[in-house]
Amino acid sequence: MNARELLFDAAERVLRREGVSGLTSRAVTDEASVAKGVMHRHFTDFDTFLAELILERTVQLKATATGVAGTSTVIDNLTAALTAVFTPLGVAMVALVITRDGLRERLHTAGAARFPLLAEGTCIVSTYLTEEQALGRVAATADIATLSHMLIGSAHLLFTERDDVPPDADTLRTVVAGVLRGAG
Q: Where are the domains positioned within the chain?
């Protein structure tokens, strides 16, 4: 494993265990059991490190809901996709972006959305719903963009309103069904 991945993995562990307030460059290098200079050798500053971590992990989301159109039910597929977007780490990364002005600026400078995980999640849901619409499983008149934003926003609220306990699948499925009511 290269130094970047070692540091990224360590940051994820610290973020899951300590939360946003516990994520410091020292905590990451201590968790990775490397000298602090290792981080500075690979990244200009801590916000740049965090931006690259978030961008890399967001890219990994792209496989979510790919190739599932026409399988199972639309509600079950969306429930699975939203669960994949809003993992405990994903929720923590959104909170990290919300709390760090410098990180949002680095993401913007890199040409990314200021909230890449939410933007990618919206894209995943939109692409999936468009595929289902082409198959006739979502109404041709459904406003895919609005549905996508409603699903991401509703799921984000649902996953963040609890104390580190994600909603159960039935609760999320009920929300998804409510948003989709009348859409197919």
A: 1-42, 45-180
Counted residue by residue, the chain has a size of: 184
Closest CA to 125 of 159, 181, 90, 75: 75
Q: Which amino acid is at 130?
A: T
- Using an 8 Å Cβ cutoff, are 31 and 15 in contact? no
- Cβ neighbours of residue 136 under 8 Å, at least 6 residues apart? none
Element (H, E) at 153: helix 144-160
| Mean pLDDT per 10-residue interval, the chain, length 184 residues | 92 93 96 94 94 90 80 94 91 92 92 89 95 95 96 94 81 96 74
For the domain bounded by 45-180, which CATH number is listed? 1.10.357
